[in-house]
Amino acid sequence: MGVSISPPFTLLCLGFISTVWTLNPDDPNVCSHWESYAVTVQESYAHPFDQVYYTRCTDILNWFKCTKHRISYKTAYRRGVRTMYRRRSQCCPGFYETADLCVPLCTEECVHGRCISPDTCQCEPGWGGLDCSSGEYRTQHTVNRKPRKLTKLKTFHMSDL
Questions:
Q1: Signal peptide position in this chain (predicted)?
Q2: Mean pLDDT score of the chain, rounded to an integer?
């Protein structure tokens, strides 16, 4: 009997994992840069309007009432776009992200060793080369070689010549 997981639950889990796994900006292999992004905001502004008012005057035809105009302002709201900035962390060149770490990337596999920095392998004892594939010990059994007999070197002085 199989277990089925609902898509919303899967998205919830993925969202949780992505928020848990964040790069540490203090890690020496993490580089950061500033990026801009747009945010829609509601902003207030002073909206002008024509205000009509009446004053007393000498106009007998208008019952001594004169009409006047003045520009007044009221607070209104509008949508605007603001540019915001945030620091983005990512792995430095030569590293790739796995979980919440930046690990070094070696273009060639380290055959008998491990990748310790970009394109740099640390070889196991007895192995060498750029990818740790060459060495003396290719099998468990090694060939014993006879030790060579060392001869003593005679030293010469200029007076001996």
A1: 1-22
A2: 78
